[in-house]
Amino acid sequence: MPTSIPTPYYLLDEAAIVANMQIIARLCELSGAKALLALKCFATWGVFDVMQPYLHGTTSSSLNEVRLGYETFGNNSADKNDEDKKETHAYSVAYSADEIDEVLSYADKIIFNSISQLNAFKGQAGAKNIPVGLRLNPKTSNSSFIIADPARPFSRLGEHDKDKIAAVLADITGVMIHNNCENDSFEAFSDSLADIEDRFGDVLAQLEWVSLGGGIHFIAPDYPLEKLATRLKDFSEKYDVQVYLEPGEASIHGAGSLVTTVLDTMHNGKNLAVVDASIEAHMLDLLIYRESAPIAAINEELIDIVPADMAKTVDISDNTIIYGRSCLAGDIFGEYALPNHLQVGDKIAFGNAAGYTMVKKNWFNGVNMPAIVIRRLDGSIDVQREFDYQDYKASLS
Ligand SMILES: *Cc1c(COP(=O)(O)O)cnc(C)c1O
């Protein structure tokens, strides 16, 4: 970590991003699928130049996201036959009538979440010759968290009734199904795809494209990438559809850290340290999912410390709890069995801080906002963006 830059900052590593990109590109090459970056996970457009050569475009969950993808992710030539043109997909849980024309001005495809939204806006999409899709809900999923489970009971995410879907087939050319969340099991993915085929097979056979969403953790080192590619290729040939994938986390997994400085240490039954960032404000996803941040480095030393496994730690009274500086009592990055006790001034980099972090950051407690720092492919360091009091003030009135 560059020591001269004031903390806190998010540090993005372009080489690590490109390593993920190469895996995605290989999967696409072997399977024929097209990959779109899910902007809701990661939208730090300062690194899009190194990502876009490997991906086919972006997908979105709002007007702002579809516009950002259109404006920042490579070539958006109006010429649909332009080989290098990136695709910009639009999706939202619910569009409002006053934004739909602007959404369509950026979109190459639009996917509606419900049949009522489809009926409300298909005319406007048709007038602009924009292909239309519908989100399907297969009522099964691979997600270990109920809050992130699109197939949770009474889910609003997509249509499930095959008769109703069959009745609108003339209005759509494709569907989107997103029902995985960090699923690292090929077998589980394949089984749930088989379930989708059982449920919707005759619908799929009448379409031109099927997006299978994100949440497939195929960048794990031991993931059977070739098997996944074959499964996707067979699927695409069986139904004669173009398959899309929408990787968010897989695009940037392991490619970012949040670099902080220890401001204070205390002792209360265990060693305590307070850093100059906040889990609630800067890595909110971990708080929501009740997870802890891995440590990627302490001072100059690159290490890989996972949060202490209480079952395995012999003397937990020597553990260190690292807290954020907001006043939330549970603003905790994690509890760790560290090689040395932390000192004021120590720099701690928390790992895997690229996805679902910068897109969720907020000004809770007025805590200073981490800068965005990029380690470029050539090794140079850019302080891409800094935030100050004026940004905080402007966000409130
Ligand atoms: C969240 C989401 C994604 C990206 O999911 P990851 O788990 O980050 O890969 C893709 N598509 C849709 C529709 C989503 O909601």
Work out the strand percent. Answer: 15-25%
Got a strand count? 18
Task: Report the sheet with the most strands, covering strand number, pairing sense and barrel closure.
Answer: 10 strands, mixed
- CATH C-level class of the largest domain is Alpha Beta
CATH architecture of the largest domain: Alpha-Beta Barrel
Catalytic activity: carboxyspermidine + H(+) = spermidine + CO2; carboxynorspermidine + H(+) = norspermidine + CO2
Function: Catalyzes the decarboxylation of carboxynorspermidine and carboxyspermidine.
Main location: cytoplasm
Protein name: Carboxynorspermidine/carboxyspermidine decarboxylase
Key traits:
18 strands, decarboxylase, binds pyridoxal-5'-phosphate, PLP-binding_barrel, TIM Barrel, polyamine biosynthesis, eight-stranded parallel barrel, 22% strand, ten-stranded mixed beta sheet, 397 residues, 12 helices, lyase, alpha/beta, Lyase, Ornithine Decarboxylase, Chain A, domain 1
